[in-house]
Amino acid sequence: MNTNRYPRFRWSILLRTLILIDICSSACHPVSTAATSSVDGQDVFGSVHKESVLRRWNFDVMNDCEGWTIPDSVFGANMGGAIWLRIQQGKRPTPPVNWRQEVYAPPLRCELTSPAGLAIPATSVKKVRMRVLNLSPETDGTVFWRTADKPDVDVGPVRFSMKPDCKQWQEVVCHIDDRWQGVIDQIRIQPASFWWRGDLWIDWIAITDGDVKAAPPRPDLCSDAVVPRLDVPGLSQQEFQDAFKVLDECLVVDVPLRGFNYPFLSPGGDYGENWWQLDGSLNLAGAKWVNQKFVDDVMRGFIEVQAQNPDGRIDLWGKSPARGQVADVSSIPRYFEAAYDVARRTAEASLRERIRQSMMQYLDYWFSPAKQDPQTGLIKALFEETFGHHHNDPDEVTPVDLNVAVAVGCYKVSVLSKKMGVLPQADLYRAKFNQLRESINRHLWNEATSGYYNYNLTRGAQTPRLICTTFDPLQLGIAPPERIRKLIPSLLNPALFNWGSRPVTSIAMTEPDYVEAVGPYDGRAWFGDIWTMRDLPIIAGLEDVGCRDLAAELNWSTITTFHANYCEYVVPSTGSGEGVQRYGWTASQYIQAIVEHLFGVDYDRLDARLRVCPHIPQALIGHEIALRNLIIPTGMDTRLDVAVTQTAPGQATILVNVQGRLPREHLVEIFLSTPERQGIIARDGKGKKIALITEASVPANMTGVRLALKKRNEVRFELSNGK
Asked: Nearest 5°: CA angle at 600, between 655 and 663?
């Protein structure tokens, strides 16, 4: 044989055919678990609910696509038993693609088109089934259709899901909705969304009737049974509960979706049904107080989408076309905080370890050569890996907020590893935390202006732009004490960050590009408007360094600004809520601000410890505030009631009652914010003195007691009168 007569690609096709046969010898037959029979001349899939096949294409004959058309933009053919599609349109060129190509998929419509003239009544169609071998990172496809009266107009789409990079044949089902009307003339199938890499085979396609897909169950995030009751002057229970309803509105239960296999929380509003790493992480801050199983499952979803990426990255969002391969772009990693909280609260030890491994893998990505600058030791950012950043060129900017977020991740992994008895990794990540803290203080601090600034690697200099992220190194005491003292005046200067009026503006009001964005989402809102995502880290940082009176005031300002105003961001001068309304992370962080900062509730299953550490602003001095029926995820239907009355600095009564079953051998720690510990004593409900906690683990500027957890736990802090 003269092989030169045959085009080279034919030999490639032959080789792939042999590989396909070797992978699965049953390529020409229906899935083995679905027995077939005949009713009135039609195939029937044997299952609990039998389905009549209205049309079926088997693709059994070489080069015969049975009337289906493969678009010119896709390399494909019938390989004798299956349609083979080479997914190559998005192949990474050399040099590497721009970050935009890793974030946004090109608008491709690469549909396979069925023969026309199907003449199937839409009321008869309930499903489109396919048997596929998916050797690509693709997870979602769509089905379109055309009707006899409008044969040139596509209707749809209806989505279906499949397992990515799966070396086994899988049956894929697209459940048809009530938009199928009239007489179906033709269908179109887009088997992939991104067309980035890989191969996909379709063994057969069938249109069937059958049962309508049942509505998936909704995890309870907002019913009276799970939402705690709030009694705080100026805040209504109705509006507090509405924050949980916002989370419910963001809930996506029609999964799998873009590789995410569990219900999750989308951003809300016009952002549509899609998972985002940042939004999904921040949304757990509120959701974890009403449904532990739900947040456990969200973490499983993140772990599984992370596993698709060989570099340990969690993608910015579900539509990332770089999914399934090494890339340069993720998102600002608030994932570490969410993961740590779920890990130490879950009852499942195996999940806890999976979360810990996920956190370490994600840190590996941030410390990889692609993201860590070898000279400074700082982490480089692209696009939404930082807040309020104009530049998106690689190898250029090492921002304050990203480097603090990664340092927080190191710290959380270290603490979690220690709690779980994995001491070598506890030491390793504590060392990484210390290294990054040193780099932050060496390269990002500006002594002349007393602030932390982003660092431009290209210019070898700081970016002289004062952003609210300058306060992020307050977290975990990354900023040393002498710099904390220099930072605080900038925070308290009303001319810079609006202190005393409303929460902190996203950049200093004195910056030339400061702007107050109004109306629908406007990217300029990053450069002036107020965001809960930016205030909560500052509140946490102030608590970490002992500035608890300031933390209480900023927290209360955040609560009152966003109460009944669960918008994307707020205009500093007017307080009006702008951007997306009913925004997920705003509602979630509003809940977090009340539960974790105002009342200071924290639960750690690993330590068998409940902590209550309220931060009372001046506006609530002399008032009793209460949070009741708060779920504590002990697995024993444990509910918590907290009531706090603070009358003066160092003087307060804190009542912690437990409903339901008491977890065994649990302790409760009750603290009061006290600028100075001298002269403070604690008494129980009967007036008996209680010994104060004296070890170094006591949070800064706090006085507290540690008790065996009982049904009723009352502590009265008072200034000593010598008795």
From this structure: 65
From residue 634, give the alpha-carbon distance in Å to each of 44, 253, 286, 638: 48, 26, 17, 6
| pLDDT at position 27 | 36
Measured distance CA(501)–CA(200) in Å, rounded = 58
Position 321 scores a pLDDT of 87
pTM of the model: 0.91
Supply 88's token pair.
């190559």
* Burial of 409 per CB tally in 10 Å (0-12, 13-18, 19+): buried
DSSP per residue, 63-126: T--TT-B--TTSEEEE-SSSEEEE--TTPPPSSPPPHHHHHS-------EEPPS---EEGGG--
Handedness of CA 171, 172, 177, 183 (dihedral sign): negative
The amino acid at residue 424 is P
Torsion angles phi and psi, residue 467, rounded to 5: -115, 155
Q: How far apart are CA 305 and CA 383, in angstroms?
A: 20
**What is the spatial distance between Cα 611 and Cα 663, in angstroms, rounded to a whole number?**
14
312 φ, ψ to 5°?
80, 5
Tokens of 421: 């008895």
Mean pLDDT of the chain: 89
The C-alpha angle with vertex 685 and arms to 679 and 688, in degrees rounded to 5, equals 55
pLDDT of 1 above 70: no
| 97: confidence class by pLDDT, cuts 50, 70, 90 | low
| Per-residue confidence (pLDDT) for residue 156, from 0 to 100 | 78
- Which of 22-31, 78-87, 98-107, 361-370 is the most confident on average? 361-370
Burial of 481 (0-12, 13-18, 19+ CB in 10 A): exposed
Record the tokens describing residue 564, joined without a space. Answer: 């009944």
What structural domains does the chain harbor? Answer: 27-208 (2.60.120.260), 478-598 (no CATH), 601-719 (2.60.40.1180)
- Beta pairing partners, 602: 611
CA distance 377 to 712: 50
How much is the pLDDT for 615? 97
HEC per residue, 340-385: HHHHHHCCCHHHHHHHHHHHHHHHHHHCCCCCECCCCCCECECHHH
Query: Distance between the two ends of the chain, CA-based, in angstroms?
Result: 108
Q: Give the per-residue pLDDT at 711.
A: 95
pLDDT in tens, 29-68: 333 333 333 333 334 444 444 789 999 999 999 999 999 9
pLDDT single digits (tens) 276-298: 999 999 999 999 999 999 999 99
> Rounded distance, CA 622 to CA 568, Å?
33
Q: What pLDDT score was predicted for residue 92?
A: 44
- Residue reference for tokens 């089934």: 129
